[in-house]
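Quality-control log, excerpt.
Job 1 of 2 completed; input and output follow.
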Amino acid sequence: MSPDRTPASDEVLRRVGRNLVTFQLIESFLKFLVANSKFSQIVEYEDGSPREKSDEGNSTARSMLGELVRKYVADVLVDAGAELPESELPIKAVCRAGFTFRVECERDALESLRVDLKRMTEARNELVHHFLPRWKPEDEDAMNEAMAYLDAQREMVLPMFDHLRATALGLQQSRQWMADYFASPESARDMELMLLQGSSLVRLLCDIAGQVQRADGWTYVATAGQVAAREMPDNLRDLKVRYGFSTLKKLLIGSELFEVMDEPLENGGFRTLYRLKARQ
């Protein structure tokens, strides 16, 4: 091999570097997408004390390109016509705030993306591991062929580069929206509501509404109070401290899970009833 430089050999090396940087950018997009497409925050109660756990994506810093492509296809790309599985919550979880980023594709488009990702991976491996036989700096025709090969390779992978760059930008924008939401008063209010709806007392009230009801579907709050006093006396006694409501009726309304009404009686008084909202 001649050590002498020529304009053709310099141009081949420039295009090799250009393609390698393109492949490295593609790999960086994949690492970002795989590592940041899922996040969850779980709040549990053990002995009455809240505890927070975060569950983030596995580290991808040392993952090879082929493994990144496999995870991207498995975790981020989804068939628009397929039913997504429900998140599995821990048995003791009271509430869970989560973030999942997916790209929905029609089946044909999804299969095309899988094929293009495989071709891109093969092209990168060919450049990194098998380009040397094309390197003949003393042969101008071979250098021209190498330049044509490198240009064709770049044109082949540019659509995948654009797809992954746009997808990574979409994920970053989604994460910023999530960060803004969790920093807002609305988020704090939603979290408190989820905790309330998942509390043991509210779950008991749901069970009572489903089991002890009149023919018209309504349940007496007084009856629910009697059951709660027997099953969870401490919760009912410390209602204001534990839940922030002074009465069971206010708790039912505050949970936003129930319809509540006051039914008038012949003596001028009333009795309060409740039932689960239809959407619940």
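Job 2 of 2 completed; input and output follow.
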Amino acid sequence: MSIDFTVAIPTYNGINRLPKVLECLRSQKDLENLKWEIIVVDNNSTDDTAKLVQEYQASYSEHLPLRYCFEPEQGLAFARSRAVKEAQGEFVGFLDDDNLPASNWVIAAYKFGQEHPKVGAYSSQIHGLFEVEPSQHLKQILFYLAINERGSQAHLYEPRKKGFPPGAGLVVRRQVWQENVPRHLFLIGRVGSSMLPGEDSEALFYIHKAGWEIWYNPAMEMEHIIPSWRLERNYLISLMRGIGLSRYYLRLLLLKNWQKPFAFLIYLVNDLRKLVLYFIHYHKLIKIDTVAAAEMERLFATFISPFYFGKLNINKHFKR
């Protein structure tokens, strides 16, 4: 049986989060003529995730395959790569284990791909579902938590201007991913001592480089569960640090080869300027204001990211 659409759910110790996602998928509508499947990619969990999926497999409809696979190599980049390898659908839609898709998410995702033959990847409209409502002041940086609200009209992404969408709620053409995205990305996500998120952007860069379009599709709506600890100062500062440290590598990907020799100095000067100006304006708030502290951390990490990137390359060279 050929499959039209695959929903892939990477998870790590997701026994308490997965049930909500699986129930949302069980409740999808208008799929009478669509052949689709769900794959749970267990990314080296130490809890009873496997047992939970087995229990759901027993109760799922025979017309909706629910599959399980184990990916021992830790990191979201590896889990998503494994999902694409295992998938049978023409399209693969990624849901994190804290993403709750609307009841028409699957059909909206499939139709968009069918109607846009040049699209290689397209993102959802993602709303935050907060355990504790954040202040208005804090909301100005919450898009870093994979909240993606870009209006009610579908539009094409221009990566050189506004970057790439988050991987949560992203749909890709399976063949496009297989032909263009390397199995081993440089940015693997937050794993152990690694502080380099941005694996989604790196994967999308390869799709974009191959000439495929990347879109935002607001008809694919979903909620991202945000627990209270993700709004705490220490977490947000750590998140922004990782985003900043990944910046230089992602910038280089978007440059032409002849531009790269000049990039180091240009970025260094411009990032230092931004860092100094921000510090001048907000230094009195950094110790007491979470937004100011997080933004300062992001700017500082962006400034040092070329050196951090260089250090990683040196370490990799000596490990060979």
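Post-run check on job 2. The chain has a mean pLDDT of 93.
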